[in-house]
């Protein structure tokens, strides 16, 4: 089937996907503004405090840069998580970058600073170079990932101690992989108002990630060159303190090309909408190990294959289905190549069974949508109803029969095998009304220190073990999902049973009314006889 035919075929999905975007994905502008204001207040106070309390930070800090899904316009869910890159510049111009030991990663050897660089960088910090080598480098002069992370934690702790409370905000610090995470919650003193106008207290998190920035002239030799796909203004690149999968060396730093990726994805509105819809589906299916960066990378590769008009407005249904099929193929093959270096497989840490389970599930979703496309295009909405709470509460909430629209309910499990999440046996959620598509998002956790490649939008701990306790998508049999004939038969039986019940109730009511009338008539006759007898006696 050619592209034009495919676009016509999936045009019927447009209305339902737009509705889904509006109800489940689109962020409330006022709420977004409210969170951004608090974030701005925190950064306005926090960054100067870090500079004041650590001379090395003050001398080497370049700027902070908003990163992650929120600022790529790819955020799904509440705007309460933010990623901030704290960019540093090496004070020495004499350093060596090695990128041939591990694809997608580099090592940086920092050599001695000359007198001019010492005066320029550490004018008011005589022990600057000594402090730098102690806090950042190993004995051989290589940039040490763990040392930098520990130093960053100390800088944040000193700033927090100096600041105290910021604008009635309580701030707690934790560690999430390469990031120092600030958990921020709005608090009030006794006697003050306890609620905002909308009745909800502000609570959000900020990931502060230390990154080192390099220029276009220092671009790694083994990576895709930026002039192929990026604009001149986004030529810088950086390194992030994340190790390769299954490697323990503390001198490896992960390459990051956030600015270039953002440029590549600009002005492709239908693409961003389709990407967010796939992320939302991922959340509903509870595929925690399918990071947002993996999905984003599938789209980056597709951008290089397609012409600009492929992503034009009005093609969301076609793009969504096209990219869902692409993702399914990647999962089936067990490989999503890093956009900047094809030697790196982003799925290397995922088990074959887990990938096959996700691929099988996508195959079934695509087939169901295609089979019912003309008859019931709104079927696509049912795949966004899955919720962990509903799964857990199924035992106490038996499913009920509803209207004919509710026939297309979340998939049932096979009688032969019930899917498992870790060691917990689960069942799908009961049907819900088609008029409400309730949001039930679950934000992926941050990748741990030992994690494989992931984007700035996924820095939380993400379990990697593939033992029996690791949540994984089940490999599904053909009859583990909806059997439409059985569903329709159940509905007919339910309707018949309802009619029989109603008829029985009606007959009982009529019988009760008849008995009441007869009783009243008997009572009236008894009263008349009594009156007649009394008159005769008189």
Per CATH, the architecture of the largest domain is 2-Layer Sandwich
- How many domains in all? 2
Q: Low-confidence segments, ≥5 residues, pLDDT <50?
A: 387-452, 454-481, 531-538
> In what range is the share of β-strand residues?
5-15%
Shape: elongated
Q: Helical stretch count?
A: 15
Radius of gyration: 31 Å
Number of strands: 13
**Which structural class matches the secondary elements?**
alpha+beta
What is the H/E string? HHHHEHEEEHHHEEEEEHHHHEEHHEEH
The description of the largest β-sheet is:
9 strands, mixed
CA distance, first residue to last residue: 106 Å
What is the CATH class designation of the largest domain?
Answer: Alpha Beta
Mean pLDDT: 77
Enter the CATH topology name of the largest domain: Beta Polymerase, domain 2
Which properties best describe this structure?
single chain; 538 residues; alpha+beta; Beta Polymerase, domain 2; Poly(a)-polymerase, middle domain; 2 domains; nine-stranded mixed beta sheet; 15 helices; 13 strands; 41% helix; disordered C terminus
């Amino acid at each position: 089937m050619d592209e034009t035919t495919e676009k016509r075929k999936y045009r019927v999905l447009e209305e339902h996907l737009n509705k889904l975007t509006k109800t489940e994905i689109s962020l409330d502008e006022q709420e977004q503004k409210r969170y951004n204001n608090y974030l701005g207040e925190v950064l306005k106070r926090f960054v100067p405090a870090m500079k004041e309390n650590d001379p090395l930070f003050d001398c080497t800090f370049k700027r902070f840069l908003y990163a992650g899904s929120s600022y790529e316009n790819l955020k799904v869910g509440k705007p309460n998580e933010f990623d901030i890159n704290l960019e540093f510049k090496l004070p020495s111009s004499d350093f060596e970058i090695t990128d041939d030991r591990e694809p997608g990663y580099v090592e940086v050897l920092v050599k001695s600073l000359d007198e001019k660089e010492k005066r320029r960088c550490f004018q008011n910090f005589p022990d600057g170079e000594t402090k730098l080598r102690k806090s950042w480098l190993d004995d051989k002069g290589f940039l040490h990932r763990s040392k930098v992370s520990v130093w960053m934690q100390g800088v944040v702790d000193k700033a927090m101690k100096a600041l105290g409370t910021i604008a009635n905000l309580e701030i707690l610090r934790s560690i999430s992989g390469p990031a120092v995470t600030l958990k921020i919650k709005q608090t009030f003193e006794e006697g003050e108002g306890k609620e905002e106008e909308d009745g909800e207290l502000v609570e959000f998190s900020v990931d502060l990630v230390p990154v080192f920035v390099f220029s276009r002239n220092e671009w790694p030799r083994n990576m895709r060159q930026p002039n192929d796909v990026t604009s001149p203004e986004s030529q810088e690149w950086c390194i992030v303190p994340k190790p390769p999968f299954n490697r323990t060396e503390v001198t490896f730093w992960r390459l990051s090309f956030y600015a270039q990726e953002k440029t590549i994805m600009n002005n492709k509105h239908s693409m961003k909408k389709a990407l967010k819809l796939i992320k939302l589906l991922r959340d509903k299916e509870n595929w925690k190990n399918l990071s947002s960066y993996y999905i984003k990378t599938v789209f980056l590769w597709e951008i290089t294959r397609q012409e600009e008009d492929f992503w034009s407005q009005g093609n969301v249904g076609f793009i969504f289905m096209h990219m869902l099929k692409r993702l399914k193929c990647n999962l089936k093959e067990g490989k999503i190549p890093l956009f900047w270096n094809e030697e790196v497989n982003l799925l290397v840490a995922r088990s074959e069974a887990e990938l096959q389970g996700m691929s099988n599930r996508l195959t079934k979703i695509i087939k169901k949508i295609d089979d019912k496309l003309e008859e019931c295009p709104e079927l696509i909405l049912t795949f966004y109803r899955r919720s962990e709470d509903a799964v857990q509460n199924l035992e106490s909430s038996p499913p009920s029969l509803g209207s004919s629209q509710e026939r297309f309910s979340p998939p049932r499990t096979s009688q032969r095998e019930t899917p498992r999440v870790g060691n917990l046996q689960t069942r799908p959620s009961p049907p819900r009304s088609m008029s409400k598509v309730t949001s039930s998002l679950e934000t992926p956790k941050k990748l741990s220190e030992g994690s494989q490649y992931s984007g700035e939008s996924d820095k939380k701990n993400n379990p990697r073990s593939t033992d029996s306790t690791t949540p994984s998508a089940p490999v599904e049999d053909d009859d583990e999902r909806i059997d439409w004939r059985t569903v329709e038969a159940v509905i007919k039986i339910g309707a018949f049973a309802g009619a029989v019940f109603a008829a029985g109730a009606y007959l009982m009511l009529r019988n009760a009314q008849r008995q009441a009338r007869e009783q009243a008539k008997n009572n009236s006759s008894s009263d008349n006889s009594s009156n007649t007898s009394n008159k005769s006696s008189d």
